[in-house]
C-alpha cells in the first residue's frame, strides 16, 4: 500500500503533531520508567499494525539503551523471561486498553490490580494516558498508510514546546 497522504505536510497535521509531541512530553517527564514507556508504545503499535510507530518506538528504545532481545520479545512478552513483573503488568494493561472492542469488560479488574501493585498514582496516570495517546497516533498513521523505516530517533523533539 502506498501512503494516502503526507499528514505531516498539512497545516492541520503539523498542528496535531505539535500537540501530540507536547502531550508525549507530559508522559516522558512523568515518573513512569522510560523503558516502560517505550515497551508500551511498541506493543500497542504492534497490535495496531502501525509500521511508522513500530519503527519510531523500536529506534527510540534502542537509542535509549534497550536491548535487541527485549525489543524482539515484546510481541511475545508472556512467553519470555526478560521483563519485570511491573513491565508485564504495563504490557497487559496496554493490550487490554488497545483491544477494548475485543473484551466486553475492557481492562479487567485483575489487570488493573496487577498495575496498582507496581505503580503509584502518578505513574498510573501517565500509563493510562500513554496507552490512549499511542492508540490515537497509531490510528492516524494507519489510516493514511504512513510507512515505517524513515524515522530517526528524536526527530519530533523540535515539535514539542518547551514546558
From TrEMBL:
Can you name one GO molecular function term for this protein?
Answer: peroxiredoxin activity
User: Which InterPro entries does the annotation name?
Assistant: AhpD-like, AhpD_core, CMD-like
Domain Carboxymuconolactone decarboxylase-like, chain residue ranges per copy: 17-96
Q: Does the keyword Oxidoreductase apply?
A: yes
Q: Quote the PANTHER family the UniProt record gives.
A: 4-CARBOXYMUCONOLACTONE DECARBOXYLASE FAMILY PROTEIN (AFU_ORTHOLOGUE AFUA_6G11590) (PTHR34846), BLL7811 PROTEIN (PTHR34846:SF7)
The record ties this protein, via NCBIfam families, to: ahpD_dom
Q: What is this protein called?
A: Alkylhydroperoxidase
Q: Taxonomically, what lineage is the organism?
A: Bacteria, Bacillati, Actinomycetota, Actinomycetes, Pseudonocardiales
Amino acid at each position: 500500500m502506498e501512503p494516502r497522504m503526507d499528514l505531516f505536510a498539512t497545516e492541520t497535521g503539523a498542528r496535531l503533531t505539535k500537540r501530540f509531541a507536547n502531550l508525549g512530553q507530559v508522559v516522558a517527564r512523568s515518573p513512569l520508567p522510560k523503558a516502560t514507556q517505550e515497551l508500551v508504545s511498541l506493543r500497542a503499535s504492534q497490535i495496531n499494525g502501525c509500521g511508522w510507530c513500530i519503527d519510531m518506538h523500536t529506534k527510540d528504545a534502542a537509542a535509549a539503551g534497550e536491548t535487541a532481545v527485549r525489543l524482539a520479545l515484546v510481541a511475545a512478552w508472556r512467553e519470555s523471561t526478560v521483563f519485570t513483573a511491573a513491565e508485564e503488568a504495563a504490557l497487559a494493561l496496554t493490550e487490554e486498553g488497545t483491544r477494548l472492542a475485543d473484551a466486553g469488560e475492557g481492562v479487567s479488574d485483575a489487570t488493573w490490580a496487577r498495575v496498582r501493585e507496581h505503580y503509584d498514582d502518578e505513574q498510573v496516570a501517565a500509563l493510562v494516558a500513554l496507552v490512549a495517546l499511542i492508540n490515537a497516533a497509531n490510528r492516524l498513521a494507519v489510516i493514511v498508510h504512513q510507512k515505517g523505516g524513515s524515522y530517526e530517533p528524536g526527530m519530533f523533539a523540535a515539535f514539542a514546546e518547551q514546558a
